[in-house]
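Hi everyone,

Forwarding the result from last night's run.
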Amino acid sequence: MLAKLFPNVYEGWIVILSQAIITTLIGGAFFYGFGAVFNPIVDEFGWSVAFVSFAFSLRSEAGGLVAPLIGMMIDNVGARIVIIFGIIFVIFGVLLLSFMTSQIQFVISMLFIAFGISAASGPVGTVAATTWFEKRRARALSFLSVGGAGAGMMALPVAWLVDEVGWRLALRITAIIVLVIGCTLGPSIRLRPASHPQPLDGLKNQSSIDANIDGYKGLSAKKAMLTQGFFMLSLGFILLGFGWTALIVHQIPYLESLGADKTLAGGVVVMFSVFSIIGRLAGGYFGDLYSKQKVLSVAMAIMTLGIALLGVCNNLTQAIIVTCLVAPGFGATAPLRPAILADFFGIKALGTIAGLSRLFVTIGSFGGPVVVGLAVDTYGSYSLGWLFVAVPVAFAIPVMLLAKKPMPQ
């Protein structure tokens, strides 16, 4: 483990760094980067945009279906085993995808990838990181979420690789890179053990044994599910997911529809990721100072406005500007969502609770890209599709504000 190589560094930050790098690689190659293989698959096989959108959406939908299982595994066997298990699954799925010749093979490969991503870069990192921080929780998660921004930056090299060697070989090359680096860093990711010698948050003025963390204070998963807060948060995340997944899946194809080549479109995704870092860091900073629900609501308002504006863009320049404007709102949601779950329900069963929350989120995550894809197939443009998915994100704002934190038990 890296902690043994750097004994004077707070292990929580090592967990953050390791997971951020893994998220960057897996998210960049197999989530953001898949936008670069979207049109090549459509062109090679002649499949509809809606079907390919459906298959890509399985990464979120199927991953969400197994998220409760992943969460329980985190709570019972630990983050380290889960993440290695996930890396192996996602690599197998990507290699299978690189050899696929039919729709059923496409769908099966996406199911393997979905399960692997859910285990390797889903709740495992946020749950592990949350156990190491309390006073700095939102900020720590904001640094972790920068890995997601780094993933977006990988869209450009992935797009370049697809152009240079073709989408099949590009997938095989990235799979090997992710396997080597992922299995090197994965063992460093673990939950904070009871009576860990380093002080919580890495702050010297805190006791090395903190009852709130080492005692795993909080609600059981069963009790959490019965609260108004869990229902409202889950509903809010469903509505939010409807918009952000559509934005990620269709970002490159949308830009290409306005005249951008694949490299330029990948470059815009990099810009989107860079601007999202502003939101990620700001969300973490303000989330530790003010109500996380209110800060998240502001971020969702920015997303709503930005997605709606994409629907009225008339040219590539306007689309690029709006993409950069919506990015900070999108970025701020990343650290705030898991931080709110931890604040509401504690970390006693956070893995299971986060997995259950992810299950509900996938409903919106699945629907958004398909709605946009159907709009493209039906009307020949993305305009109405963006307007359709902006509405649920707007409704998520009052839902989030109405969620009530359970009383301590």
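Residues 208-216 have pLDDT under 50 and may be disordered.

Cheers,
N.
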